[in-house]
Amino acid sequence: MTRRRRIYEGKAKVLFEGPEPGTLVQYFKDDATAFNNQKKGVITGKGVLNNRISEYLMSRLSEIGVPTHFMRRLNMREQLVREVEIIPIEVVVRNVAAGSLSRRFGIPEGTPLPRSIIEYYYKSDELNDPMVSEEHITAFGWAAPQDLDDMVALSLRVNDYLSGLFLGIGLKLVDFKLEFGRLWENEEMRIVLADEISPDNCRLWDVKTNEKLDKDRFRQDLGRVEEAYQEVARRLGILPEGGPSDVKGPKTIQ
């Protein structure tokens, strides 16, 4: 990893200053957290796999006209991204009942929803990422009404495209989390997809068996976490048989 000035470190990634103004280097860690950082561990090779998976999915989305911060992958664990002003809202798109939705409403996990549901959460570890409404978002100035409209429209496009892409490789896109940022180009501002798209922030189940191939394996102590991430990459066609050399290693450490 090239040593540059560290801009920000989160639970799963580190951002460094980029080689050109307006760019950042996004480094993917093997660290894993769950339940708002209450559970911590290391998933060996996760950073390598998420870098590749996110590169692939962001590139495919760019091809259908979804604007993203992604520019190119630099190496096994780093990618070059555009510097954006992150909007402090997580947009969650749900297609099938799982996780907190099942707990809140008593809906059995795995129940197909009548339509895709969008939820918003305020990004704050101290407050445990509380669910918020559009009224909260606009009243507190986290995003303007037009920003929110753009975020919803982009989220639905991403959902439509990724649902089909994953279904084609035998995976069900149960739900996923997106983050967005404001990209400034001269005096123009536009909303773009930021952060990452990977098994860290998507629930992915095998279509036939409902086997979980995402971070729920870590959250729920199901085991075979590394193998699940590798299987997603393998189905996407971006993992050579046997996997990259630094994916192999000790099992999950908790």
TrEMBL record:
Molecular function terms, GO-annotated: ATP binding; phosphoribosylaminoimidazolesuccinocarboxamide synthase activity
PANTHER family the record matches: MULTIFUNCTIONAL PROTEIN ADE2 (PTHR43599), SI:DKEY-6E2.2 (PTHR43599:SF3)
Keyword annotations of the record: ATP-binding, Ligase, Nucleotide-binding, Purine biosynthesis
HAMAP family: SAICAR_synth (MF_00137)
NCBIfam families per the UniProt record, alphabetical: purC
Gene that encodes the chain: purC
Name of protein: Phosphoribosylaminoimidazole-succinocarboxamide synthase
Ligase found in the keyword field: yes
Gene3D superfamilies: ATP-grasp fold, B domain, Phosphorylase Kinase, domain 1
Domain of life: Bacteria
